[in-house]
Structure formats: structure tokens, C-alpha cells
Amino acid sequence: MLGGFPYVSRIDLQGSRNFLAKLGIGTKSGLRIAESALEGGAGIGRITEGLLLQVSQEVDVVEPIAKFTQKLATKTGVRQVFNIGLEEWEPRESDQYDLVWNQWCLGHLNDDQLMRYLERCKQVLTPNTGLIIVKENITSGIVEVFDEQDSAVTRTDKKFLEIFQRAGLKVVKSEIQKGLPKELFPVKAYALRPQD
């Protein structure tokens, strides 16, 4: 995930805070705190702890590996932990989120699984104001790259845009993460809302 560059986490989290601030979410004056957030593919909770618990009142977590979420489940502000894969996650009718964050996890889903997952995320967004954030590595070329060791695909920007369209989502803001080592894939953040 961090490519052997531990300082990348700090740069990444700051870039994510800045991205959310441009969307009106954050802790500074004039920005709003989200009532509820969901982190898909949370791993050990680096983003939940380093970002989402600061910009939202409550956070739910989807992560298939239970040992990764044991400590996270005890954190103040973490409401629920769903130990299930993103492709199997089914939100409840009562679930509603102002913010759904997905980072460095969607490459483990094939295109159809990703489209269906994003459709489910769309169903639980707070009407008119809810946002889905996708922050993933992208290839700088025109073809996807499959990593056999991680069993994950790094998609092109074009492929992400096609999948978002198929899922009934539109991009309201996107940007490339700055400050990362040149040895790593570019990282792009997309803010998504349902199409009109």
C-alpha cells in the first residue's frame, strides 16, 4: 500500500484532508463535519483513525480481515465493523452516510464487482449532499496493470470513469495526490455523486 515509503501516509492523509475541505467537509471554520461515514476496505484503519474520525461524528468500517479491525472496533466514534468483503457487503435499509471513503482497496474487485459495490454505496448516500470518494493508484499508460502478488489491478483513469458512469455516478471533483515518490503509481482522488 505505501510502497515501502512510510512517510507517504502523512502526505496522503494531508492530501485527503485538503481534498475534503475543497468539498466543504472538515474541521476548519466554514466547513461541515459529516454525521456518518463509511470506510470500505479499511485494513487496519489508517484512514478511519487518521482522517474520518476527525471529519465525521461516526464511522462504520467494512474490512474482510477481522484481526485488522480488532483494535479499531474499540475506538470512540467507530460505530460498526462489518468483517466482510466489499463484493459481499449489503447495506441495511436504515444505513445512510454523508461520506463513503474507498482507498487502495478497489483493485481487488473486478470491474463488475466494483460497479455493483458502487451502486450499493450510492443507495446509502445522504440525499443531495452525500459523497463517495475513490482514491486509488492509476496507471499513467493506456492499459491496466495486474499485480499477481497482490491479486489486484491498477486501473486507468479512463477505466474508472467508465465504471463510475455504469454505476450511475458522476465525478464532481478529482485531483492527483501531490508529494508522492516518483517510483509509485500516480494516486487520484475522485469525489462522486449520483447522476441527475
Automatic annotation (TrEMBL):
This is Alpha N-terminal protein methyltransferase 1. One of its GO terms (biological process) is methylation. Coiled coil: none annotated. One of its GO terms (cellular component) is cytoplasm. It comes from the Eukaryota. The keyword Methyltransferase applies. S-adenosyl-L-methionine binds at G41, R46, Q103. Pfam families: Methyltransf_PK. SUPFAM superfamilies: S-adenosyl-L-methionine-dependent methyltransferases (SSF53335). Its EC number is 2.1.1.244. It catalyses: N-terminal L-seryl-L-prolyl-L-lysyl-[protein] + 3 S-adenosyl-L-methionine = N-terminal N,N,N-trimethyl-L-seryl-L-prolyl-L-lysyl-[protein] + 3 S-adenosyl-L-homocysteine + 3 H(+); N-terminal L-alanyl-L-prolyl-L-lysyl-[protein] + 3 S-adenosyl-L-methionine = N-terminal N,N,N-trimethyl-L-alanyl-L-prolyl-L-lysyl-[protein] + 3 S-adenosyl-L-homocysteine + 3 H(+); N-terminal L-prolyl-L-prolyl-L-lysyl-[protein] + 2 S-adenosyl-L-methionine = N-terminal N,N-dimethyl-L-prolyl-L-prolyl-L-lysyl-[protein] + 2 S-adenosyl-L-homocysteine + 2 H(+).
